[in-house]
Write a structure and sequence with these properties.
The protein is built from twelve helices and twelve strands. It is an alpha/beta fold and 336 residues long.
Length: 336
């Protein structure tokens, strides 16, 4: 008999259907995530990209069921993970999923770690909560924590477990966060801007570490970022978001070689190129700004910034079209 929360799905690890998350504020309704559809297969790295305010982080938090209610609320849609609809689970059932099967690396590692507890105690807590059979006591949990620190490249882990977060660099704190996220061998790890606060060299080290650990453990990764260079280096699939919607979805090679949505094309053109500064030309940028919820335009929400706008774009919001296999785009120019 199929559990009430379970539905027979495809082989996708994660399937998001018509998902909308709104925030109900005194100033009005903020449609932070608005009708998102996504699919993700086991063992893949999916990049979610877009400008600040486009809904990337809210989508990640919605998948984890970490949106504060009130003011936030999932108003439509489903999130199927391994066939289980996460939107129907109660708080206790969802806690059994978080950490064990889905983990998350939050922005700003220095503020994500508790400053009054040692690194060892914070990693050990993950084992004590979610791996009680193997981590039978605190001493065993600390041993397992040391092994995790070795996996993520922390030198002298026996000493580091006694340190507090303020004694570590930003890069080391991010490695700690990755260690905590991978502690219970989750099926899916969501990394929300994991390299934003780090210098370029440390960014490269963290990304290389995530790729190596993903290949070693087979954990699927959702990488939330605004950096297309990070996407090109790490991801196999890309979802481009704008005003709470996915406007384009494809494999990373297709996104970079043949972007279809005008917004995606604008993002590609804005990537700095080596030697471009020597020509004296200004860096290309998308005109205008992301609209706020108070002045969201009718029709396609990108029409006031789009160089390819048509009359239909002002009147009606486009659905998602599939002009090529594995390549979806929300643009009237690809209708039919």
């Amino acid at each position: 008999m199929v559990d009430q929360h379970t539905k027979q799905r495809t082989q996708d690890l994660l399937e998001v259907e018509d998902l909308s998350t709104h925030f109900f504020t005194p100033e009005g309704i903020v449609r932070a995530v608005d009708g998102v559809d996504l699919r993700m297969k086991q063992g893949r790295i999916l990049g979610i990209v877009g400008e600040s305010g486009c809904g990337k982080t809210v989508l990640a938090l919605t998948i984890m069921r970490l949106i504060p209610d009130p003011p936030g609320k999932i108003v439509t849609g489903h999130v199927f993970f391994q066939g289980v609809d996460l939107t129907t689970l109660d708080a206790q059932e969802m806690r059994s999923i978080r950490g064990n099967k889905i983990s998350m690396i939050f922005q700003e590692p220095m503020s994500s770690l508790n400053p009054v507890f040692t690194i060892g105690s914070q990693i050990a807590e993950v084992f004590l909560l979610h791996q009680k059979d193997e981590a039978s006591n605190k001493s065993r949990a600390l041993e397992m924590s040391i092994e995790m620190l070795k996996r993520v490249g922390i030198e002298n882990p026996e000493k580091r477990i006694k340190d507090y977060p303020h004694q570590l660099s930003g890069g080391m704190c991010q490695r700690i966060m990755i260690a905590m996220a991978l502690a219970c061998k989750p099926e899916l790890m969501i990394a929300d801007e994991p390299t934003t606060a780090l210098d370029v060299t440390t960014q490269a080290q963290i990304l290389d570490l995530m790729i190596a650990l993903q290949q070693d453990s087979g954990t699927s990764i959702i990488l939330v970022t605004h950096d297309l260079g990070v996407v090109a280096q790490t991801c196999q699939d890309v979802a481009v978001m704008y005003t709470g919607k996915v406007v384009e979805f494809a494999g990373v090679s297709d996104i970079f070689s043949q972007p279809l949505h005008p917004y995606t094309k604008g993002l590609m053109k804005s990537i700095p190129k080596v030697g471009a500064g020597l020509t004296g030309k200004k860096l290309l940028a998308i005109s205008g700004n992301v609209p706020t919820f108070k002045n969201m335009p009718d029709g396609c929400t990108f029409h006031d910034r789009c160089p390819e706008v048509m009359e239909k774009c002002y009147l009606q919001a486009p659905p998602m079209f599939r002009p090529e296999k594995g390549h979806c785009v929300r643009c009237w120019r690809h209708e039919g």
